[in-house]
Structures
1.
Amino acid sequence: VTSFRVGLLGHGTVGAAFDALLRERADAVEATVGRRLELSGVLTRSRGDFEELLETSDLIVELIGGLEPAREYAERALRAGRHVVTANKQLLSHHGAELLAAAREQGVELRFEAAVGGVVPIVRVIRETLAAAHLERVHGIVNGTTNFILTEMARTGASYEAALADAQRLGYAEADPSDDVNGKDAAAKMAILARLAFGAAVELEDVTYEGIEHVTADDIAYARELDLALKLVGTAERVDGGLSVRVHPVFLYGGHPLASVDGSFNAVTVESPAITEITLSGPGAGGPQTASAVLGDVISAMIPPAVPPGPAQPVEIVTDVESAFYLHLEVADRPGVLAQIAELLGLQGVSVKSVVQKGLGADARLTIVVHPVRESRFLAAVGLIGRLDFLRVPPRWIRVIEEVFE
Ligand SMILES: NC(=O)c1ccc[n+]([C@@H]2O[C@H](COP(=O)([O-])OP(=O)(O)OC[C@H]3O[C@@H](n4cnc5c(N)ncnc54)[C@H](OP(=O)(O)O)[C@@H]3O)[C@@H](O)[C@H]2O)c1
């Protein structure tokens, strides 16, 4: 039996789990693939030598994380004709294009299933299963930390701050959760997904993103009243011959497959005319789970490769897209207020789908849902409404995804 030698960079949460899993699964892999998986060596800050590892490996697994030296090692491995498997979304979202180009030139594989959507095998599905489908849109809950926080807020009525503290205590959020809660982590993953789904050169800079820091317990309570779920959703879609790639909190109707994805789970919905939609969901992270996705990539690289992906094409990024919105206003409860608001919305071509009014003493709370409209139009109307003297607090709004697949 010939061996297939794997050099492991990084031996932390995922690296150590991968090391253990590789030993545990070596017999089963040999029985299926006909080659013996062997660890040729490990590199961390305190042990191992990269040159030596490269010489003695068929494939390099990069589980260091961050940009440098992960980028340099991955590039050198590819240039030396070694396959590379990584779980590093930062690396992919910043240097994906050049690394994939290097892999193509050398005729080796660069696989990164664990870098997007946690353990959800979406990369393989888009690249292989759906290789012949014309994809229109990809929606994803691709950050487990924020989904955990939003789920807790919905379950307990807690504030954002309290739910974040819980998430940190339970290990679902890091001590510094900034890149999770501000949407940047999800944006990096959406850049990778957009590149895959549309074969387009999308970078992190092309992604517009918003996080969940400003979501209130009230927003969640309204969502419940309206029978909606509030999620941080990444969207990549074809718009007017270009692409829009964005991440923001949205309301979803119960019939949308992402509405019921709770806790730290991730999920991705792919839409195409030929298939309607396919949704995959699963754990968003975790050492053993991620290691399993990494090992799946290693095994794929051991088998003669499928059709390699072609080079990404330049694309126009569209930022002013259509969306339905929910608008929340607290106003003085006096005659003519609703008429004035409706007029300002109407002037910008914003059409109202529903209005719910509730008394709050001398004030009233208006919850307005509007039909899909260009964001710039909606924001212009809200800007004008924000100046009305009967407004008690600044207007708040959240996007609404209207599709359901029932
Ligand atoms: N944790 C998860 O659930 C999860 C899920 C999906 C994807 N990922 C991704 O998987 C990757 C690894 O994450 P992790 O949680 O396993 O990280 P981690 O626990 O911090 O482990 C990082 C490892 O890399 C090593 N390392 C750091 N800097 C190095 C350097 N300059 N040279 C050589 N080795 C270096 C560390 O060595 P020392 O031992 O010497 O410090 C450590 O062994 C990241 O890209 C992460 O985004 C993680």
2.
Amino acid sequence: VTIAPENRHVLIVGIDGVRYDSLVAAHTPNLDALARTGFIAPVRVDDRNPTISGPVWSTVATGVYRDRHGVHDNDLRGHRFSAHPDFLSRVRAAMPSATTFAAAAWGPLVTAAAGGPVFAPGGYRPGLPAGAEDGDLATIAAMDEAVASRAARALLHENPAAAFVYLVLVDMVGHAEGVTDRYRDAIETCDQQLGVLLAAIAARPTRDAEEWTVVVVTDHGHRDAGHHGGDSDAERTAWMVAAGPRIDASVAARGVDHADIHPHVLDVFGIRPDPEWALEGEPLRAP
Ligand SMILES: [Zn+2]
């Protein structure tokens, strides 16, 4: 049975700053279940990108690297997103009746903050809770919770063809205190939030007639003492978990890249990339 493009859906979950070795050591039953039906693989941050959130998330979104999308750090001004649009924009352009969804506590992904948004359609960013201080870890945790719950509502009750949901607590803990027990706890919290998103998808009344692809990805690692931006293996080793009817686990052996996500999203919907886009990656299926 072929499921029509309008009944196909993609959820990309971005979890910032999660070391691969820390992920493997943490208790993450929801990620493990996804990996069993698809794959988990380390992702080397391409040498054209620094191990910094802005450039790498821009590669996830656009399918090209810093030399072309023009994002060099977390100030996005000077970007070339009009020439290299994000995958949500490309899905909407190719499928005019399709809707998309995005949510993130880090403003530049979904709002005009710092020259954003990376995802041109914009999206939900939770406001700071009353009396909270920006950057305080409890505040960040509350904002991630708001992102996860708003996203779960969208996945259950709305009908986004493609969605990008982003969680930032792990990276903020890494910056605050390094790769500690609390860093691992934050990874486990993200896994629980992923579980809520997957439960929302499973509970859709029309789920049996739908095809869903889920990709969970981080942008970079952290040094032991916290922080990133350098070229150590701890910083350059990211990872990806992907599952769905068009995901071929054998691609984990050929090696997967941040730039593969954009072409995979297009591939799900049968959108043929224009050769002029010169996407850097390949769909996550056998050639
Ligand atoms: Zn980051």
3.
Amino acid sequence: MLLILVLWLGLAQPGLAQSSTPNAATAAGIAVEHAWARATTAAAKTGAAYFTIVNKGTAGDRLLSASSPASDRAQLHVTIEDHGVMKMRPMADLEIKPGTTVTLVPGRMHLMLIGLKAPLKLGETFSVTLTFEKAGSVEIQVKVEKPGAGSMEHSMPGMQMSPQ
Ligand SMILES: [Cu+2]
């Protein structure tokens, strides 16, 4: 019900919800652009998605959680180096200050798709719903690109999940 209200308010205000590209979603000043994921092997149980969040509003917002029909769970992860070993840790949330852009890129941050229901195949798209503190739910379409796309490998040798 709240989502419907938020969407209705967005549509009712000229100047908002004017994005036409399929990859962009706008609600309360938040836009999500260039969402992509890496293709996975047939055996992969996890995948990673990346996107750019632009806060065009005058107030800060926070990305609180995410979900996708492509996997059992979707978790925001940050990549850190610990004694020369790349590790990833879940993030509680992600702040997007007004007028700033936050980009999830390999080697820094990603949306971890845990328990993939099917391999992510090159050229396919799947949806992810991002839940923001103020902007509410924003559905994005994630395009699957080549396994090695991006600047750094997601699955680096020695990369491991820290216990939660
Ligand atoms: Cu991860």
